[in-house]
Design brief:
alpha/beta; Rossmann fold; Pantoate--beta-alanine Ligase, Chain: A,domain 2; 2 domains; eight-stranded mixed β-sheet; binds S-adenosylmethionine
Length: 323
Amino acid sequence: MQKLTSIRLPWPTNWAELFGSERPLILEIGFGYGAFLLHLARQNPDAHVIGLEIAAECLRAVEKSIPRNRLTNVIPIHSTAETALHHLFTPASVDQIHINFPDPWFKKRHSHRRLMQRDTLNAMVSRLQLGGRLYLATDIIEYAEMSAELLAETPGLDNTLSTPWANTLPGRVVTKYEGKALREGRPCYYFAYQRNQVPIHIPVQEEFDMPHIAFTSPLSLDEMLAAFESSEHKAGETHISFLYVYRGKNVLLFEVYIKEPTIDQHIAFVLAKRETPNEYTLKLGNLGYPRSTRGVHQAAAILGDWLLGLHPESRILNRSLKE
Ligand SMILES: C[S@@+](CC[C@H](N)C(=O)[O-])C[C@H]1O[C@@H](n2cnc3c(N)ncnc32)[C@H](O)[C@@H]1O
């Protein structure tokens, strides 16, 4: 089976093309060892089921079990929910979203990494089509209480239950975490919401053109190399770390970590000497599979400004950056 990751899939992804036909989309976030994902695929032969997971071990297990179960309407994707929702899915394109037992280490200090939080929930709501369903299950009462509050304060969703949550949901297949909770006598809390017509505008985040800066500088690559120090920067909600610089024959390679609200990338910028003396080009290197996001452009701008600032006679020749 082809291994799929949100870093390599087109932004947005044409799911009908990927699956070979147009059908309603069902999404499971954090499918773990995949019992529920496979159940969704079996129960919904007329839908396409997409699973998101960040744990490589879980992905490997599910990638094996899908062909063993002869299922052709389900694909697992290596991706965080945040990256997939913002970059892969267009607004109002998903019929159901399922989240089972997220964030088992739920504590206040982890709140920024929590799946059920305002920005991520808004992205889910925007990706659901009118009448689409959002299902959540948890065995942590504090998580249930926090989610109940968050969901109740979401204008784009209506509760389909008469209570904030239910303690049983008949006909559900039991997931690994659910089984453990039930065996240990812990109650589970199930939520079922429906997308209404209240609008929410969160456009899909497409890729920008590649950043590119050409400039002149009297400094040599070795002088620029000697001036480099690792540094950290904040540009809006994006954190950029310039980690290290490597010297090639006619290039410097800058290793950079960029953490944006919807994606983390570990990438490299290449500073290359041009044929004309004292002329340089700064570009995104091909290391890994870099995607040209706003954060990548912000990092290129910071690095370009730093390189130009190293000598008063440096001059921009041309600059292609998303401002
Ligand atoms: C406690 S496990 C539950 C697994 C499964 N749903 C079950 O009920 O047995 C939570 C899963 O969510 C995954 N996960 C955590 N954060 C995620 C995110 N932001 N995007 C996608 N998956 C995530 C974890 O790797 C883990 O497999």
